[in-house]
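In the design runs reported in the main text, the only information available to the sequence generator was the tokenized backbone. The following block is the verbatim input for one such run; it is reproduced so that readers can re-run the procedure and compare outputs position by position.
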């Protein structure tokens, strides 16, 4: 029985670079969405907050209007009592009854004055709250419109990229299965530790991609020989030669074009 051919280092490097190209493509898709999901979430929270505030303000105005009605009813009752007491004074039998009715009349008159004062205060509060309500309504309308546009923008981007992202994620997982576990773990660790997510980079102009640190000529020759996996001593990234990188880019661009 023929012995299974072992995967060469070159094939491992190609597979790792393919994985990097796929994952970088996913990163690009997600960066297009950028902060939009968070913006939409923040706007939704702001709209909910403004709506609640508006409801409370409206309830407060309704409460004040109810209090005004109560005070007006109290005034009508007081006026009726004053009329009643005035009529009763015409038929009193002595000064004590007359004075008693006079005090009752004066008390009801004070009740009317206090009610009138309260009504003025309530009306002033309503006027102020109505100004605040108008401002809140305007702001809520603006925020709702802004949210509507941002949601539409996000939905458009999601619709345009959802299918591609799903396919790429499946390809990424399939690609990982074709690479030995220790290399996938190393790749993932490096990718998580670098800002741009680049764990595998090509040597460009004598330095690793995105780096200003020059790589010694001897190391560049070793990278080009594709006999062993070499990492950048500064960033820890896995290094591949420029020719291999270009070949894999051309190959993967054809794959991406079919998605």
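Verbatim output:
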């Amino acid at each position: 029985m023929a012995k299974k051919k072992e995967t060469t280092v070159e094939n491992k490097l190609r597979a790792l670079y393919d994985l990097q190209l796929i994952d970088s493509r996913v990163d690009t898709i997600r960066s297009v969405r950028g902060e939009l999901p968070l913006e939409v979430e923040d706007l939704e929270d702001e709209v909910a907050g403004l709506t609640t505030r508006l409801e409370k303000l409206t309830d407060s105005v309704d409460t004040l209007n109810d209090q005004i009605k109560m005070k007006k009813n109290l005034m009508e009752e007081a006026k009726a009592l004053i009329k009643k007491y005035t009529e009763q004074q015409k038929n009193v039998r002595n000064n004590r009854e007359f004075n008693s009715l006079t005090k009752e009349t004066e008390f009801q008159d004070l009740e009317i004055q206090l009610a009138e004062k309260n009504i003025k205060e309530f009306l002033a509060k309503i006027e102020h709250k109505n100004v605040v309500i108008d401002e809140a309504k305007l702001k809520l309308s603006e925020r709702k419109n802004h949210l509507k546009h941002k949601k539409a923008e996000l939905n458009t981007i999601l619709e345009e990229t959802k299918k591609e992202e799903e396919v790429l994620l499946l390809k990424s997982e399939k690609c990982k299965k074709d690479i030995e576990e220790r290399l996938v773990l190393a790749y993932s660790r490096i990718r998580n530790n670098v800002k741009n997510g680049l764990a595998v980079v090509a040597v460009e102009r004598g330095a690793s991609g995105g780096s200003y640190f020059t790589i010694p000529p001897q190391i560049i020759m070793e990278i080009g020989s594709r006999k062993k996996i070499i990492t950048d001593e500064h960033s820890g990234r896995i290094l591949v030669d420029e020719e291999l990188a270009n070949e894999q880019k051309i190959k993967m661009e054809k794959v991406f074009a079919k998605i």
